[in-house]
Structure to design on (278 residues):
DNA sequence: TTAATTGCAAAAGCTTTGCATGAAT
DNA sequence: ATTCATGCAAAGCTTTTGCAATTAA
């Protein structure tokens, strides 16, 4: 709430119910939803909202760095409002995407920076495998 | 040559000129090309080849693990025939994708595995920033 | 009031699919 | 002789765009 209000005011962007709804939906979930999923969830409360508006809102939220876009190779994007540098894990069985809190992303980036001629500014670290739930199921 | 012949025979897949051409093109480049780029390059030597065949060949090559699919968040896939675990770097200015040979991917994965309940099987590590060329240009 | 955003429909990419022809085994 | 792959065109998805109507500032 606070951050989106301040951020949008600073940048001269208008705070619309649709933009707030998209942002709050993302703040309230750990699912890393796609645009379509967000749209389906919000259409109940905002029956007139269009999918194009969801896309435009997400684009705006990404530009002001309140949201990040993930691409796990599924053929669409997922979105995440948790903006601390962190890696992601996707289960190959149930496709769920989890935040990985224990990957020292900044240390990985430092280590990498020391060895390469590239000036590294950001990263996307994806890991794939079997989540705990699916390990139990197939054990 | 050797590996694609053996691999395809083992799996009962047919070795066609198109499939060989796609694979050899990927072996001979460090550009991490898209399907479209591969198609444009091969159409000279194979005037009858279709884009759909490029896609089908890539899908097959990925399935037999001779090629890997990358997604850097551009809205399309890129392909890489270099199959040792390695990270990638994309320049935010010129969009070039580089292999990163100095990222200890397996050590990163080990470190991560020790901290999480996930069973990690593979990874895609992407870094973004400014490549050496573009650092020089803007210096 | 004015400048930006929404919502709709249409368009634009990228990738996949179905099916008849053609090629590899 | 079979079975699988190719090539074409069409379809499918996700995402973007144009523009009139609407809303936030």
């Amino acid at each position: 709430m606070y951050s989106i209000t301040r951020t949008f005011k600073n940048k001269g962007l208008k705070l619309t119910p649709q933009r707030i709804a998209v942002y709050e939906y993302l703040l309230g979930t750990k699912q890393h939803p796609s645009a379509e999923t967000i749209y389906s969830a919000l259409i109940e409360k905002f029956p007139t909202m269009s999918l194009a508006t969801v896309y435009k809102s997400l684009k705006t939220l990404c530009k002001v760095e309140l949201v990040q876009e993930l691409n796990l190779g599924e053929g669409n994007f997922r979105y995440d409002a948790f903006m601390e540098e962190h890696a992601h894990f996707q289960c190959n069985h149930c496709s769920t995407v989890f935040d990985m809190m224990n990957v020292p992303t900044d240390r990985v980036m430092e280590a990498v920076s020391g060895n390469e001629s590239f000036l590294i500014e950001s990263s996307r670290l994806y890991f794939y495998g079997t989540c705990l739930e699916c390990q139990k199921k197939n054990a």
The CA atoms of residues 88 and 99 of chain B lie 5 Å apart. Residues 12-14, 16, 18-19, 48-53, 56-57, 60, 75 of chain B lie near DNA strand D (CB under 10 Å from a C1'). Residues 87-137 of chain B form a domain with the Dna Ligase; domain 1 fold (CATH 3.30.1490.190).
